Records
---
Amino acid sequence: MTENLNAVLIGKKPTMNYVLACITFFHGGAKEVSIKARGRSISRAIDVAEVVRHRFLPNVRIKNIGIGTDQFQPQDQGEEFQGNNITTNVSTIEITLMR
Amino acid sequence: MTENLNAVLIGKKPTMNYVLACITFFHGGAKEVSIKARGRSISRAIDVAEVVRHRFLPNVRIKNIGIGTDQFQPQDQGEEFQGNNITTNVSTIEITLMR
């Protein structure tokens, strides 16, 4: 994943917040905007990409879609989980839009 | 979207059910399996693709990931919605795995 790209990290806010963030990047001169999400936010990431392309910026295309898995250990879950080395996997997506 | 492909349509069942469906297709000789999902099931589709690749079939690669929008009119919502032509958009994903 390229680090110097304009990135929009998708969370729990309404879809249009992230759509606006993407549009702001493009209006600021960005050639590429990367939409990143994990877990249940992934479907919202696709909503954002589709709304940006179809409703606001028809000249924006999908350059690439990558999926992957992030592994992390739940360290902040309280003492009853201490000593367990349970690794949790969460799926990720990165949608790169370009114009 | 190619129609003659082996397709696994992701719904609300546990992830491993769909993983097993993919593996069954590949073990039956399929060269490609298409994982399709809409809306909130999209994150599960990515889970399925990641589990198939990383845990069960390491020689399987992602051939393509496509996203899109399905439009439908809520016709089955009862009489109070009759006469409205509200079109609902739902995001879709299609992950094509190949070996």
---
Amino acid sequence: MKWVWVFLGVFLSMGTLSWGEMGLEVPEYDGKDRVHVLNAKNYKSIMKKYDVMVIYYHKNVDGNRGAMKQFQIEELALELAAQVLDDLDDEDIGFGLVDEKKGSAVAKKLGLDEVESIYIFADNEIIEYDGELAADTLVEFLYDVIEEPVEIIDNDRELKGFFNNDEVIKLVGYFKNEKSRHFIEYDDAAEEFHPFVKFFATFDPKIAKKLKLKLNEVDFYEPFMEEPDTIPGKPYTEDELVEYIEQHDRPTLRKLEPHSMYEIWEDDIDGEHIVAFAEEDDPDGFEFLEILKEVARENTYNPNLSIIWIDPDDFPLLVPYWEKTFRIDLASPQIGVVDVEDADSVWLEMDDQDDMPTADELEHWIEDVLRNKNLNSLDSLKDHYSLGKLLQN
Amino acid sequence: MKWVWVFLGVFLSMGTLSWGEMGLEVPEYDGKDRVHVLNAKNYKSIMKKYDVMVIYYHKNVDGNRGAMKQFQIEELALELAAQVLDDLDDEDIGFGLVDEKKGSAVAKKLGLDEVESIYIFADNEIIEYDGELAADTLVEFLYDVIEEPVEIIDNDRELKGFFNNDEVIKLVGYFKNEKSRHFIEYDDAAEEFHPFVKFFATFDPKIAKKLKLKLNEVDFYEPFMEEPDTIPGKPYTEDELVEYIEQHDRPTLRKLEPHSMYEIWEDDIDGEHIVAFAEEDDPDGFEFLEILKEVARENTYNPNLSIIWIDPDDFPLLVPYWEKTFRIDLASPQIGVVDVEDADSVWLEMDDQDDMPTADELEHWIEDVLRNKNLNSLDSLKDHYSLGKLLQN
């Protein structure tokens, strides 16, 4: 595949600084091959060389010109990621490719089952990455992977930092110290979900008091909720923690993130998603998001409700595609139901952006959506779902 | 340049969804040429076709193989941006190239002066974009460009949204209504700084009261400050507002953003930057950022102090480069002084990440840095600046 490099030698290096200014150079791809092609003979010895191994399990592209080009681009993103991480001091991170056809023996041995996914082998754990295949998103995810699975909260400012990040599923436990048997069970459970679920702990009784935690107790925070749930039955074994988290890992409101976008999209409910678009940095979007959070908090125990919040700022290149596909205007907030099989959708009509629905009205609409279940019956209510009509019900 | 497309036809399309799932397709470049090459003959008629024209004023690359490749990649980023925005309903956004040598006549007529910059012509204003030349960052910036320059705050939730975004320079004014002469002056001033500085207004006396604003009064909010400054001498003309903002447009603490990274980096003070690395989503980083904000608030009127805060999460590909260039570990927060000519730097030694400097200690260090002015004298204090040593002074 060397001939591609001739044209792509400087792939993704687009930053420019004035002459004589330094300190902000975006890396250029240097053309060196760093990504290994893994086969039954070499995979063990190659994987032994690295602390972390990132393996792209890809479709076989032989004889398909379009797929081949696509694959070359993907390979380049991995090469750039490998080059950038080559400079990292602490960890050796290797990259490899396993072809669905030619590498089927390796795939079987390594337990790779979903083609087009990236598997990350780190510390005896296998992490599946089902996000954007872009160098920056993948590299940022890998920094999280190599961090410790449990973050310790030592003081009030760090506690404020803990509360500040409310967009992810997180847990916090209070333990005697790092050697505590119960902390070790907690740490082991953390490894199972790392880095998707964030685990925190404190050994400080004053911090624990502020978190309203008893010794060996763990609280579970759903995204965007104000109050946590205390996991019952302390002290817990690793298995008990794992089971609890698995039963609660689909939040009532969850944010679409580039590093897990496909994973979340594939986790539909009866082939549908309730999707809300809101730009947090915009006052209108912020307002709508506040209403949405209120509804989510009211319905946190409804297992049939999981709203995906998309901030258009995080996916600028998808905005015109969504506007066209869903026939909506993303300049204002939107909420709708999307059929993931054909991208058919119905949207709540919010004509006047100065007069948004109240949390009650929005809840009413969502209840109606859940009751009608499939889009055909929703569709019969017209192309656009009108709030006014709903309120007459 | 057609031959490039053969290999790059699917450039940047790396997202994959399971079979039968729709609604999340990252756009692929379709290979169609949309970016115009502007010359003295065609530029007027081409620019007339669009509401917004994005012009990349680039170096001449004839005879330089490396620069040519680099330029092709940049062109591709622009082509992808043009394609994505082609689907936009509201506005026609055109893209053009002006060659430093071949297009010098056009450059002169359009007033382009900084080579390697992007100039955006919209509503009789010229906006210089000096950020990352990547399709997503540029497209996101263009969405901001086509928004109204003044955002109206109608209710309490929107007011909360206004306060929520404290990372940018923003202004808010209270006016009678949209037709008010004073609002029109304010709106005209907004156009001069749009979209870099955010302008808000309210026509609601209750909201104005919560903002402590009198009629026709405008408050100026520096990033990360708790209290605004009221611009003196209300009511203001456009020129008075413009002058005030120009005198206050270098904040005490500012965040490096991809869309303006080069502009900020080039705005050094005596060839140096005080740079702080802190990951906001990490408790340690959050803690350090809180201390930094405290120092910035104490020193908001010091014209010689402007700290650049970099969240490593925003620049994942640059992290190993910075760690190598500055010889620091970005797993923990860092603060240092960087010479922009040679990227030479000295950093505050924070050995124990559990015991961060207090705001006073950090302020002491920064004062010392400003007093010593150039890195040579700082360097004589050793490779790393030790907090312990400083406190003995």
